[in-house]
Amino acid sequence: MYNQTNNLNQILKSFPVCTSNLDEKHRELLGGLIKEMGGTYHQNMMKSTKILISNKIDTTKCLTASEFNIPIVSIDWIKMCHKKKKLLDKKEFELKCFHGLKIFLLGFDKIQENNLKKLIEDNEGKIILNKEDADVIVIKSCLYMTSSEKNMLKEFESKIVIDKWVHDCTENRKYININFPSYKYNTDMLKNKFEKLEKEILSDKRECERNEFLRKKKKSLRYKTDNGNEENNKNIFNNFKLLFNKLIFFISPDFDKETKDILVKSISLGGGLVYKELNPYTTHIICNSTSENFNSKSISFGIYYKPEFVNPNWIIESLREKTLLSPIDYRPISSMDSMLNESNVNTKSEIYLNTTVISNIFKGQKFYIYAESYSEEEFFKIKENILQNSGEVVNSNLSSKDNTKSQNSIKANYIIINDGFSQDEMSILIERRINNYQFIMSHRYIDLCITKRTLIDLSHEKYIHVLPFQNSVPFPEFKEKQIIVFLYGFGLLEQNVMECFVETIGGVYELSKKTTHIVCKESISLEKANYYKHKYGDTIQFLGIEWLLECLIEGNVAKEEKFLIPITEETKESKKKKKINEK
């Protein structure tokens, strides 16, 4: 039970409180408030401390508090307790696992970066583009780096963790010390990794020979492996020679001789072949931060023959695990140099433009991005997504001179434009630039195609939310008023489309006691309306689909009175007809 007394000096009676990472002004202010409410203020953590107030989650005191299950809350907790004159529930004010941390991501592709960004931001962290200002540098665990790239990161070694740290913090809902060895990036050079692998293979071979010896010597008492499969134990070493069987590799010319030799030995160990030139039979291209000439050559080759692009770690780790690992996590990062280079660290166009082809979704499609409707960062992100999926961008940069070429000379399948333009404005703007196109879409169309891993045919499928809207989305009023919508009477395809539309404009699609609006395709029966009101609350409003369209036009929550739908009483005949239609 929480103390509900109105006596201010009794609220925190016998309640020791400590603070962390606060300046002197805030410490004095909090110390005064704590004493005024009858509590005890300590500058250092003690055994008796019951709560820690901090504005950052990675301090020494926070780690100690976390270890002893002492709640860590924001400064707002003590202020609200003082304001409301009662002891409030600490859970509402507890710091999330990345609170106040500035995090720099390195070596991830677009999808992985977005997933990590969501996890970090949902837990009160912030993604930044400058590694010097970062509290933590999260690096892809299977990323391959050259010795020079590793040297560039050497001064930040204490800040570097692998992506497993983000997932573990999120799963455990608490900050975990970044100095734990299990979260440190493996800085071993490829040579050291290969030597360790050879020792492991030799050890496995000796174990196999020992087991074979025991099997022959003691026929009556067969030696069994952990899984009881004698033959499997016998052939562990031989299986290495089948791992890369029928695979043909090409190694990028950018690697030094020592690295190439190690890769050739590793591939030979797995039974694979290495060719000196790209050819139609090549199944895997091993590269990392490739040179411009090789990169363009390999990409054009990849579009037609579809080999896998992997970094050297994929070879070593596959041999170590004795199975072909998924190549997705071992994609080469062609923008690594610019991400690490001091001079380019603030150049967003360089950071985000990673043109390694990862699919053929947009093959043969031309896109014109209306640059003025996007920031520089957004423009290059969209361009990167298109190029990575084999598309072509007909306006190469943000320069207005580039965009004012003869409109008849520019042809595009899609024009990509941001929200915030009326239909008339859009028509005028586009006609000045380009008049030979098929569809006008927002950037959401690019994201949807990548998510579904196919080019969506807009002549057959209707997706309202991928069109450019007259007002910028999401609408702030939808979030402020916490609009929660449920759809009634729609088919499965229609429902999926409308659900995406609701979430795009800032609403939440959910059926619960928090639901505020039920949007119906047609009318709703009295029986159904009463059922929803009884189960989910009397305040639910039943509206027609026109209400959502009006919200789209106005850019906020439209008045509901005009769009209330009639609630009809169903007769026995109408119920029978419905059953027949359903059958």
Could you please say which CATH topology of the largest domain applies here?
Rossmann fold
- The CATH architecture name of the largest domain reads 3-Layer(aba) Sandwich
What structural class do you assign from the helix and strand content? alpha/beta
Fraction of residues in H or I helices: 25-40%
**Overall morphology:** globular
Question: In angstroms, what separates the terminal alpha carbons?
Answer: 55 Å
Extract low-pLDDT stretches: 1-5, 219-234, 335-339, 341-353, 399-408
Total count of domains? 5
The helix count comes to 23
Q: Strand fraction band? A: 5-15%
Number of strands: 22
Give the C-alpha Rg.
31 Å
Major β-sheet strand ordering: 2-1-3-4
Largest sheet: 4 strands, parallel
CATH homologous superfamily label of the largest domain? BRCT domain
CATH class of the largest domain, please? Alpha Beta
What's the overall average pLDDT, rounded? 79
Written description of the protein model:
By secondary structure, the chain is of the alpha/beta class. The protein has five domains: about 10-95, Rossmann fold, CATH 3.40.50.10190; about 100-185, Rossmann fold (3-Layer(aba) Sandwich); about 190-330, Rossmann fold; about 360-465, Rossmann fold (3-Layer(aba) Sandwich); about 475-580, Rossmann fold, CATH 3.40.50.10190. About 40% of the residues lie in helices and about 10% in strands. It is built from 23 helices and 22 strands. The chain has a four-stranded parallel sheet with strand order 2-1-3-4. Strand 7 (about 135-140), helix 5 and strand 8 form a beta-alpha-beta unit. The longest helix is centred in the middle third of the chain and has 28 residues, at about 190-215. The radius of gyration is 31 Å and the shape is globular. The two termini are about 55 Å apart.
